[in-house]
Amino acid sequence: MNYTEQYRPQFHFSPQEKWMNDPNGLVFHNGVYHLFYQYYPEDIVWGPMHWGHAISKDMVHWEHKPIALYPDEHGLIFSGSAVVDHKNTSGFANNGETPLVAVFTYHLMEGEKAGRTDYQTQGIAYSLDNGETWAKYEGNPVIGNKGIKDFRDPKVFWHNETERWIMALVAGDHAKFYSSKNLKEWSHISDFGKTQGAHGGVWECPDLFPLKVEGSDEEKWILIISINPGAPNGGSGTQYFVGEFDGKRFKSDQKEPKWLDLGTDNYAGVTYNNTPEARRVFIGWMSNWDYARDTPTEKWRSAMTVPRKLSLRKVGEDYLLANYPLEETNSLVGETLAKDVSIKGKSTKLLEIENLNQSQIQFQSTSKDFKLTWKNELDEQLELIMDSKNNHLLFDRMKSGQVNFQSEFGNKKHHMPIGKLGDGPYKVTILMDWSSIEVFIDNGLYVMTSQIFPTEPYNQLIVQNMDEESIINNINVHRMKSIW
Ligand code: FRU
User: Fold this and answer.
1) Contact in structure between 324 and 318 (CB atoms under 8 Å)
2) What is the CATH number for 185?
3) pTM over 0.85
C-alpha cells in the first residue's frame, strides 16, 4: 500500500482516500475483526454517507474491502452497529449460515430539507458470507420516527438473561432503549439521561455493555455517550456513565459527566460485539466536528484511534473507565531510539532523535511536575505539562505546526484533571503517528488523544523534571513500525 503522503498515519487505520468519520458495525466473527465506518467516497468533506469496510485478523493490520452499504430510497446510511445472529433469530439464513446483521440509521435528506423532524429512522441489512456482501431487509425501516429530530446511532447486543436483543439509541438529549426477539420488531423499554451528565450538545453514538471491576468479580454496566458540542476542551467528546442494567432499564446515580478521553480528537467511539476472551475493545474517530472538515490533508480525511482495551477501575469509592492500547499494538514496537534514560529532580535532558513522528515513548514517573517538549528545525513545538499544583495535565499544540486551517484548532491549551492519580510511580505511554498523539497516563486511567500537523518531523524531545524530590525513570523511545 502506498501510504506515503504528508500526515498519513503509519500505524492507525485511515481510508485509502476520501472522507471518513465514525467507526460503525464493530464486530468479531470467524477470526475476523470488522471495521465499518462512515464514508463519503466522492469527496474529502462529509457528504452522503455509506458504510466503508475494512477487516483485520490481528487488530494491527487492516485490509480494505469494498463499500458495504450504499444509500437507498429510505436515506443515507448513518452510524450503527453489527451483531452475529448465532441463533438465526432474524430468519435471514436459509441454509444454516450465520447471519451478520447491521443495524443503522437512515437519514432522509429530502425530509431534512423540507424542515420535517421525522427523517431519521432505523434500518437493518444482513450478510450471509461473513460481511463480503450485504442485502438490505425489505421491511425497512424497522423503527420509524414520530418526530424526534435527532434519533440515531443504534448499538445492538444480545442480552443473555432476557434472551433478547437490546438496542441503545440516542434521541437528542437522552438515550432510548429498545428490545427485540428477531432484530426486526422492536419495543421501546426505557429512557435514560435527560437530567444526568453533560448536555452542551446533541447526544450521539451510544454504547452499553457490562464490565468487571479490575481484580474483582463486581460487575457494572457502562453507557458511553458521545456529545457534540459540549466537550470540556471544545467541540466533540465522549462521556460515560457507570451504573446497572437489568434488561430493561439503565440506572446510574452519577450526575456529573465522566470523560473517556480529554483530548479533543476521540469521538463517536464504540466497542466490538462478540470479541473473544470477553474483552471490551474500543475504537474512536480521531477528529472533532469543530474542524474535521478543515484538517490539512488532501487525499483522505482522518483516522481511527488505535484499538483500545477498556477496563473498569475502582479508585476509592469511584469507578473509572480506563482505556489503553491493545496488547497487540506491542508487536509494532521496533527500533530502539533512546534507552532507559532517567531524569532526576530539577533537571532537564535533551534527546535528539530523528523523526519522533512515528514513535512510542514510555517511562515511569514519581514526578507530577514535568514537561515534555517536542521540537523540529522550524521551531514548531508541542508541549505536555504535568502540573501537580493545579492537579492537571496540560496539552499545548498552539505552536505545534499547521494550526491556522480553522480557528478552533490551535486557539487554546487543553486541560485534563488528574485528581485520582495515585502517589506511587505511574507509567506514561505516548504514541505519535505523523498527525496524531495519544497520551496514556497510568495505563489509560487518564487519556488525551489529539491531532497535530507539524510541518516537519519533530527531532528533539526535551524532558524537564521540575520536582526536586522525584525521578522520571526508564524513558524508552521506540520507532513504531508501519502497518501498511
Ligand atoms: C457522529 C455522527 C452520528 C451520525 C453520523 C453521521 O459523528 O454525527 O451521530 O450517525 O455522525 O455521519
Assistant:
1) no
2) 2.115.10.20
3) yes
